[in-house]
Write a structure and sequence with these properties.
It catalyses: (2E)-4-hydroxy-3-methylbut-2-enyl diphosphate + oxidized [flavodoxin] + H2O + 2 H(+) = 2-C-methyl-D-erythritol 2,4-cyclic diphosphate + reduced [flavodoxin]. By secondary structure, the protein is α/β, with parallel strands linked by helices. The chain contains twelve helices and 15 strands.
Amino acid sequence: MYTRDITKAVQVGNICIGGSSNVIIQSMTNTKTRDIEATVNQIHKLENAGCQIVRVAVLTFADAEAIREIKKHINIPIVADIHFDYKLALKSIASGADKIRINPGNIGSDENVKAVVDACKEKKIPIRIGINSGSIEKHILEHYKKPTPEAMVASAKYHVELLEKYNFYDIIISLKASNVLTTIEANRLAAQTFPYPLHLGITEAGTDFSGTISSSIGLGILLSQGIGSTIRVSLTAEPEKEIHVAKEILANLNLYKKPKLVSCPTCGRIQYNMIPIVQEIELFLQTIQKDITVAIMGCVVNGPGEAKEANIAVAGGKDEALLFIDGVKQKKIKQENLVQVLKQVILDY
């Protein structure tokens, strides 16, 4: 099996996907790409959240041309997402796209495929083949009867071979379905088949609630088995929310360093208003670039034990909490001062 550490390394701008590289976090804008100001503003939000590669939809030549100006104002590689029209791919490449997402079997003749391959070779940019269970080629569905994991891998082979025919090997592959188990099995089969890095995602995963759960299960299982070099958490939500979920998934698998928040589920023993405090500190930690653990506990039953494992911790009392730093008791803090004190302690740590 081609686990992520032994897949081919593929360069996307200044980011390497595959090989010994870290798992890369991606997202996609939902603006009209030709609206340069709106697209740049959204990419800046994604950058600030921790996005490492961004994809934009290219539906028109105006979208493709806009990539040239967008690149002047952003700091991460940009991927042009194209369907069916090879001329849009050529225009996007000329405009400076760092990667093309296109399926070569969907753009017409061999001459069209070769034109895109030659342009990518000249600019040294890769191609991502994106297999979606809802759009598998008719001739493959006729054989497999329905979009099974095997059918998805067969579809990927069809497109990969079209690129390899022209000696093009800077390839990244994604196999996505809205069904979590189908996605898992398709990517397991792909990891046994292709030496190329895999881009993981659950397509049409859902809202920031249901989509987070689906993506955490599907991506978490695959990543824990060494499969997947880059991920996109697809949510029906603001794109930056995808980044927060992706970072949390990776952090729980020790594949990303970020602040960790530990908090109890609360029970009848609690004697201070803990939940709003936890919510505010969670948002605050998203702005912090430190590898620390913060524990917010409701009472003295489990609080001191968690405090010993955390860099910063509080254990609740009646309308107050006891502060610990590196497991050592510091002082009692009144509930109304707790958020402010915790934020300052986190900044100073």
